[in-house]
Amino acid sequence: xxxxxxxxxxxxxxxxxxxxxxxxxxxxxxxxxxxxxxxxxxxxxxxxxxxxxxxxxxxxxxxxxxxxxxxxxxxxxxxxxxxxxxxxxxxxxxxxxxxxxxxxxxxxxxxxxxxxxxxxxxxxxxxxxxxxxxxxxxxxxxxxxxxxxxxxxxxxxxxxxxxxxxxxxxxxxxxxxxxxxxxxxxxxxxxxxxxxxxxxxxxxxxxxxxxxxxxxxxxxxxxxxxxxxxxxxxxxxxxxxxxxxxxxxxxxxxxxxxxxxxxxxxxxxxxxxxxxxxxxxxxxxxxxxxxxxxxxxxxxxxxxxxxxx
Amino acid sequence: xxxxxxxxxxxxxxxxxxxxxxxxxxxxxxxxxxxxxxxxxxxxxxxxxxxxxxxxxxxxxxxxxxxxxxxxxxxxxxxxxxxxxxxxxxxxxxxxxxxxxxxxxxxxxxxxxxxxxxxxxxxxxxxxxxxxxxxxxxxxxxxxxxxxxxxxxxxxxxxxxxxxxxxxxxxxxxxxxxxxxxxxxxxxxxxxxxxxxxxxxxxxxxxxxxxxxxxxxxxxxxxxxxxxxxxxxxxxxxxxxxxxxxxxxxxxxxxxxxxxxxxxxxxxxxxxxx
Lengths: 309, 274
Description:
The complex is a heterodimer of chains A (309) and B (274).
Chain A: H1 10-22, H2 24-53, E1 56-58, E2 64-66, H3 70-76, H4 79-110, H5 117-129, H6 132-142, H7 149-156, H8 171-196, H9 200-208, H10 213-240, H11 245-250, H12 262-272, H13 276-308
Antiparallel strand pairs in A: 1-2
Helix pairs in contact in A: 3-13, 4-8, 4-10, 5-8, 8-10, 10-13, 12-13
Chain B: H1 5-33, H2 39-42, H3 54-62, H4 65-96, H5 102-111, H6 117-131, H7 137-141, H8 148-160, H9 163-171, H10 176-184, H11 189-205, H12 208-213, H13 222-232, H14 237-270
Helix pairs in contact in B: 1-14, 3-14, 4-8, 4-11, 9-10, 11-14, 13-14
């Protein structure tokens, strides 16, 4: 036996520790500790730092000087910022609904009784696993003014070539087109899950009553799919505010800022002009927009739950 | 309810046309990658005159893609392994254990999903610069070691496991830790595989983190490699297309193998309560 100088015997002590750790509350906190540590250090603390930094002048070389609301004033007086806001909202309010429409059509087409459903699903989903950089670069070549297949095709049909990525007029539509192609498969899966959740009883009953396909869609599918549609719309909107990589790969925000969206503006300000404080202030503004959207979503879903109750 | 014959024919025709449109960009890039550099500027032919497999070797050698593949692999595998571990542990606590503040903590964890991670890269960059983490693997890995989505995924799965399984083990004198690793985890391969696929592909495809946290050529990942390749050889489209293909191909293969889990994971994330 080990002659311990302590009154408690070593094994008994270890046993007590084990029992303590095995207690429900203690175990729980130990289990969530690693995740919570990382999330705190790399999400909660940085969010707070971002907020603080937005009141400082920072050049990324170590200079840090409190300047109050000057960064915000700077941004709100910056015409580039307002162009960015406009671009972002155009991007989001065109690409999200249009993309969802494409996804819904795809989901409805492969929903049932389709032989090769798996093959079609795989095809529509393949762009989702390609990186935004790779997909962006593919489209840079496809949309190339002189040699791109799109313009070759247009010419063969007797139309003029379109300056897709090199004109302020067509650059944004090009980026939106590429984004819809890339994301359609993802939303299609969400729509499929929603459509599969609608009981076939409704359709059977209505076809006995002689309802047409369109009537069924209008009176059964569309209203019953509404929660899914709202969910996808909000999530897509929140995520669309993160758009950066395809812009970086395809246009670098150009020509003349016509495709500069929110995150690109923040990136440019912070890491190309090294105005980290101003970048932080822009980031806080974006955060406020995104959180408001989340608030609206929470409000809508609570309201619709009450309506059902 | 069955579709009649005409509807079905219409559906197939639409599906085939849309499929061609969807596949077209991918196929066109593969075809371009196998053509000659002058050929793509003068010829309208769809198929290459001569299949230039050499483009792949040239593209691989014209930039340090070997190193970039290794960097991407290190980053993606470490992040994925870390996320599965932290998510399984936390997910188990949220699904099965009672503790004070559980609801608030769970809400806080989920709330992290709405914050665009690119914004947080700013303050993190400042901190990393201070502690000398710029151009290190830690910088690419550590910030992503936990993710609310994975925690949610595991929690939803654990809640479907009947509690009687655990109670039987408890009577046999097993500790919580043993129950989790010897009984629960072996029957939880589905969320683990799903999270592996989603995280690995997301990390492999990520540009923002490496773009901000590295500036040394030796630390570049494949996506950053692609953008710098484009900037250096902007007019050399056949090689660029070849590079796009070999960077993308591993993910497409991974997706084909794990398709079922991958799609189930996304469909599950859309459900209201999973």
